[in-house]
């Protein structure tokens, strides 16, 4: 698996990134270390985490994932130099007061969060430090419309960039990125960085999958023209695009046990738990089978082969899932199949936006 460059940076990452938000909740530490070992052995060099993980977010597990990764990195001399390590500073609390006091995300918050991540990860530098969600009010996590009346921003983007610049100058962060952003947000971060000589964002981490292709509605042009790379998360639509819920909805008695969407009500209340999302996923899954592919393989191949995607973030709970996701690399989708995918989207649009 060859590496690609993220945006205007020298970060050489694999086009598949291991997401880790299950570590510390669904995945115990020993198993998490085994998954990390196996991913590295199979050629994956890119890891993504966040200060608020594990998910679903709870005060008891906040920071647990970073700590698990930190102990894994500390276990073997030289291991840190073999991976590109990305983590995130949480935006405004969104009902998670254990992350920080207050409703905003100040420059001081950014610095304090970075220091905490460095300690938990047991490293001197974070390769890619991302703002997990915007400090300002935006339509995200299932919210459909932008509403100016809900604006609560307290820290201008320029001030956020200044804080990130200080971390870069101190050698604690190499490059910066965004997550769950809008076209306006990406453009404004780049504009201000270029105007004031501040760090230029190299990537944006947004949802992208068959049941949520909203990235293709303007943000893809923004990122292409500005040289900002997409890190696509939830390529399997929180498991809906694996086919495991085709016979039984997540809350049905016959549904697979142990999956996040089945176990946690907070997850089901979000975009992935909508009946429309499941209905759309079932149509895509049936299409995959009609073309001799597993739903998982088709959904991942869709992300792996799209020009918009620099690296696809996969989240797993076992070595077997990791192998299945990695084995999908190299799968191509025929023009006929891609046309059929687009025909379904024309009807159902993006139910998991």
UniProtKB/TrEMBL annotation:
- Keyword presence, Signal: no
Q: Name one Pfam family in it.
A: Aldo_ket_red
What UniProt keywords are attached to this protein's entry?
Oxidoreductase
Q: Which residues form the NADP-dependent oxidoreductase domain?
A: 15-344
Q: What does UniProt give as the signal peptide span?
A: none
Q: Please, which domain of life does this record's source organism belong to?
A: Bacteria
Q: Which PANTHER family match?
A: NAD(P)-LINKED OXIDOREDUCTASE SUPERFAMILY PROTEIN (PTHR43364:SF4), NADH-SPECIFIC METHYLGLYOXAL REDUCTASE-RELATED (PTHR43364)
Which named protein is this? Answer: NADP(H)-dependent aldo-keto reductase
The organism that produces this protein has a lineage beginning with: Bacteria, Pseudomonadati, Pseudomonadota, Betaproteobacteria, Burkholderiales
């Amino acid at each position: 698996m060859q590496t690609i460059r993220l945006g205007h940076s020298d970060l050489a990452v694999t086009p598949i990134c291991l997401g880790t938000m299950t570590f510390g909740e669904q995945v115990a530490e020993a198993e998490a270390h085994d998954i990390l070992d196996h991913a590295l052995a199979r050629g994956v060099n890119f890891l993504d985490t966040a200060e608020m993980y594990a998910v679903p977010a709870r005060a008891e597990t906040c920071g647990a994932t970073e700590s698990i990764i930190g102990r894994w990195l500390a276990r073997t001399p030289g291991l840190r130099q073999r991976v590109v390590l990305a983590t995130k500073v949480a935006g405004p609390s969104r009902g998670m007061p254990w992350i920080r006091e207050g409703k905003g995300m100040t420059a001081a918050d950014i610095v304090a969060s970075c220091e905490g991540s460095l300690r938990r990860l047991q490293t001197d530098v974070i390769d890619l430090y991302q703002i997990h969600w915007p400090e300002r009010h935006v339509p995200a996590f299932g919210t459909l419309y932008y509403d100016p009346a809900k604006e609560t921003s307290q820290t201008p983007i320029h001030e956020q960039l200044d804080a990130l610049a200080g971390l870069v100058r101190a050698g604690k962060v190499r490059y910066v990125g965004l997550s769950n952003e809008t076209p306006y947000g990406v453009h404004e971060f780049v504009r201000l960085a270029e105007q004031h000589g501040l760090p230029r964002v190299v990537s944006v981490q947004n949802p992208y999958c068959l049941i949520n292709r909203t990235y293709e509605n303007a943000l893809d042009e923004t990122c292409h023209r500005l040289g900002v790379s997409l890190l696509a998360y939830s390529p399997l639509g929180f498991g809906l695009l694996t086919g495991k819920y085709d016979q039984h909805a997540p809350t049905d008695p016959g549904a697979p046990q142990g999956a996040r969407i089945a176990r946690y009500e907070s997850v089901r209340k979000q975009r992935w738990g909508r009946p429309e999302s499941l209905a759309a996923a079932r149509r895509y899954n049936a299409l995959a089978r009609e073309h001799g592919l597993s739903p998982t393989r088709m959904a991942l191949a869709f992300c792996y082969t799209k020009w918009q995607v620099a690296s696809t973030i996969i989240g797993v709970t076992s070595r077997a899932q990791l192998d299945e996701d990695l084995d999908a690399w190299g799968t191509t989708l025929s023009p006929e199949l891609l046309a059929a995918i687009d025909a379904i989207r024309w009807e159902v649009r993006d139910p998991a936006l």
